[in-house]
Amino acid sequence: MKIVVALLIFSIIIIIHEFGHFLLAKLNGITVVEFSLGMGPRILSTVKGGTRYSWKLLPFGGSCMMLGEDENNKEQGAFGSKSVWARISVIVAGPIFNFILAFVLSVLVIGNIGYDKPQIRGVVEGYAADEAGMQAGDVIKKMNGKTIHFYREVSNYTSFHQGETVHVVYERDGQEYEATLVPKESEDGRMILGITGSSSYREKTNPIETLQYSLYEVKYWIETTIESLGMMLQGKVSLDDVSGPVGVVNVIGETYEESAKDGGFYVWINMLNISILLTANLGVVNLLPIPALDGGRLVFLIIEAIRGRRIDEEKEGMIHLVGMALLMVLMIVVMFNDVRKIF
Fold first, then answer.
1. d(Cα 182, Cα 261) in Å, to the nearest integer?
2. How far apart are the first and last CA of the chain?
3. Alpha-carbon distance 329 to 327, whole Å?
4. How far apart are CA 59 and CA 44, in angstroms?
5. Which of 5, 71, 151, 192 makes the best surface tag, with the fewest CB within 10 Å?
6. Distance between CA 153 and CA 124 in Å, rounded?
7. Distances from the Cα of 99 to the Cαs of 70, 94, 229, 249, 274, in angstroms?
8. Crossing angle (nearest 10°) for helices 207-233 and 151-160
9. Is 45 helix (H, G, I), strand (E, B) or coil?
10. Which one, of 26, 18, 33, 103, lies nearest residue 71 by Cα?
11. Residue 194 backbone phi and psi in degrees, to 5
12. 170/206 Cα distance (integer angstroms)
């Protein structure tokens, strides 16, 4: 069952991404040759309105194949026959639809269980928060100028900015206070501020606040993904901390089994939370300026918009081909590492 749930989550996220490309292609008069879920040989297929809709054997990936997408094809309905801005809108639509999906799912989660208010549960004696006079019940509003909406952001900030002095703005009984916190080394070697709390404590919201905090939720996952990628580039994250599809399926499976012990409602909420994380991640990663990804294609389109003419299609195609090959190698390495960690 857990494998089915994992594949269902992947499938929904991918088909929403590809539907973004599909919808904007149709709106811009671009012929969509095939819209498919999965990879490999077709299992089911039908043609409607000039587009083949397919379900393929391998339950990973998907595609929205447009006429002349990687060619200098100027015939009517071809991708290359449209203006550069029309093509940009088609490419960027996939990641944007991932963020829209993350927002919709966030509304469901926060509407049901609320949000994790950035309220501290206590302070550790002898550390910066205690020495500054902070106490249980204080609500953190800002950390080094960054507005805080969730308790998760408090713990994440100290993780992503290990050892940094933090200027905190917090609220107590309707009044705002400020403190400068210098982290100290804990017994396990981490640099901490001495703030304790949990993202498990949730506060319910009204419908307007639900929409507001759902936007904050999407923003949180986008920022967290970007900061995590930054740590990878700086060498602060090892290969063991990175998961590919196999690792993600394993996490989904373990979360499903643990949640099932508490009932169907918790399964539903936890699967939604994982889906928010995954779809936001997919949106961000696809916007990276890497050849073969949407972000890589956007780079060429933006250059075209600036210089007024298209880059040589053969050279662009070769760059995307090399990028795809490198991504496949990376995927194999990550997948092998996922399997190694499981066994």
1. 41
2. 20
3. 5
4. 13
5. 71
6. 19
7. 26, 9, 18, 21, 14
8. 10
9. strand
10. 33
11. 85, 25
12. 23
Nearest to 193 by CA among 237, 159, 150, 147: 159
Kind and range of the H or E element at 93?
A: helix 84-113
Q: How far apart are CA 14 and CA 298, in angstroms?
A: 19
26 burial type by CB count under 10 A (0-12 exposed, 13-18 middle, 19+ buried):
middle
Q: How distant, in Å, are the alpha carbons of 161, 257, 334 from that of 233?
A: 15, 34, 16
Sign of CA dihedral 147, 153, 154, 159: negative
Which domains can be identified in the chain, with CATH numbers?
1-115+207-343 (no CATH), 116-201 (2.30.42.10)
CA angle 191, 197, 203 (to 5 degrees): 145
Any idea which residues carry the catalytic annotation? 18
134-176 per-position pLDDT tens digit:
999 999 999 999 999 999 999 888 888 888 999 999 999 999 9
- Rounded CA-CA distance 104/98 in Å is 10
Q: Count other C-beta atoms under 10 Å from residue 202's C-beta.
A: 16
pLDDT of residue 343: 58
CA–centroid distance for 159 within its chain: 19
**Residue 341's pLDDT is what?**
57
